[in-house]
Amino acid sequence: MVTQPGRWTGRPAFPYDRSASAGPGGTKDRMNDTSNHPPAIRLSGVNLSLGRDAARVHILKDIDLHIGTGEAVGLVGPSGSGKSTLLMVAAGLERPDTGAVFVAGEDLGRLDEDALARFRGRHVGIVFQSFHLIPTMTALENVAVPLELAGSPDAFERAAQELASVGLRDRVNHYPAELSGGEQQRVALARALAPHPAILVADEPTGNLDESTGREIIELLFAGHEKRATTLVLVTHDMALAQRCDRVVRLRSGRIETPETVA
Ligand code: ADP
Ligand code: MG
Known about the structure:
Elements (H helix, E strand, L loop, with lengths): L38 E12 L6 E12 L3 E5 L6 H8 L7 E6 L2 E2 L5 H11 E4 L11 H11 L5 H11 L15 H13 L5 E5 L7 H18 L2 E5 L3 H4 L4 E6 L2 E2 L3 E2 L2
Parallel strand pairs: 3-8, 3-9, 6-7, 7-8
Antiparallel strand pairs: 1-2, 1-4, 4-5, 9-10, 9-11
Helix pairs in contact: 3-4, 3-5, 4-5, 5-6
This protein binds adenosine-5'-diphosphate and magnesium ion.
């Protein structure tokens, strides 16, 4: 996979395991549902702990979150509040201990790991703070990977178009080490958008970039979201940036705090 391999943690039973009692309709879909569209992402009753033994941490707590198709959501909260973990759960890279995760109508809990990997490849675009390009591949090859995995017959042509649309027409044969940070993140964005994913998740995508380079990436990110009506979840520390989204969701200590609608 182009994207980071998941850390599968299995599904142990925990004191907060409500899966036995929370059947359909048993979960609390009580908030965050400001959209009139069918949800692109729906998390219900999600709990997740990671780490072993004494170091085990209950990271996500009773998360209910609906994100409408085509919506852009800014996910904010203090460092360590669970933003990245929530994003990984929504992207199908991490399975929750309890609860349900639906993306583009698919119940991710019902997919085995192969099916889930295929689903991610087709429907989920992911952009990380640290780019995660494959160093032995050119920009063009990096962007072509998800297209080839999806069986696209013209993967390289489409990859070239995607690179052109992020302003890298003359960098297609460069390797990641030959590109600046901003250029690498453009490649990563082109790769994420290339399969026309239903959802695009970005985890502090400008965190490793200077301010003006970061701004360029953000413009491209929003342009990709708007042009393709791709649902966007953007984790950021920057409140002004989060407020460019349709809605801001705030996490604190693993719980959704005060969802606020931004007009
Ligand atoms: P954020 O992205 O908001 O900074 P994270 O989702 O990365 O927060 O992490 C939330 C909490 O979970 C942190 O306290 C972090 O230390 C802990 N955590 C994250 N991954 C693991 C893991 N694999 N094992 C144990 N604890 C983890
Ligand atoms: Mg994080």
